[in-house]
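re: that complex we talked abt at group meeting.

here r the seqs, copy pasted straight from the sheet so there may be weird spacing, ignore it
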Amino acid sequence: DIVMTQSPDSLAVSLGERATINCRSSQSILYSSSNRNALAWYQQKPGQPPKRLIYWASTRASGVPDRFSGSGSGTEFTLTISSLQAEDVAVYYCQQYNNFPWTFGQGTKVEIK
Amino acid sequence: EVPLVESGGGLVQPGGSLRLSCGASGFTFNYYNMIWVRQAPGRGLECLSYISGSGGDTYYADSVKGRFTVTRDNAKNSLYLQMNSLRAEDTAVYYCARSTAGLEVWGQGTTVTVSS
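got the structure back, here u go
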């Protein structure tokens, strides 16, 4: 199975400041037929299911604010929240969907400093 | 209208069985591959099973292979997860999700508790 490792496990950021979450895959997750990285980012708030924010490593899902962006390639990926808002407090997960079982990172808890 | 609604969770004894259902609405169900995902209390997310739109292809995580079976009834817009030989470590919230470049749409989840 592909292992997804996120860092840090938690971070506290002041309102309006940038938050950066890293995700590393144990092997390439390049989807050969499209030459894109099969990497998604999710946001989960307490008592709710996860919500997909980003797919194909950098494509923002419909309705997701543009302060959320994804980048990276190969085995290193990043989710950036450019200006943290109070409603962004949540746990964030990366996930590879290139090889089943699709696997998630362990999660990064984002809080307000 | 909620696109995916899970049901069938509950309390079951170790070694017992449970069948989860996921009702789909508002989209053409048979166009989409579907996934079951679970989240143990205070833990992360685990993809358990995949089924193609036609139902012809299925995949399972090693943790449930041989114990869980995913099926679908496209005429009823429904997805199922038959869970046998349940263990305490299967205690979790179980989600069904629609697969499009990852997991595009999620249900609200149903809770399974395995305990004597």
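couple things i noticed - The radius of gyration of chain B is 13 Å. Chain B has no helices and eleven strands.
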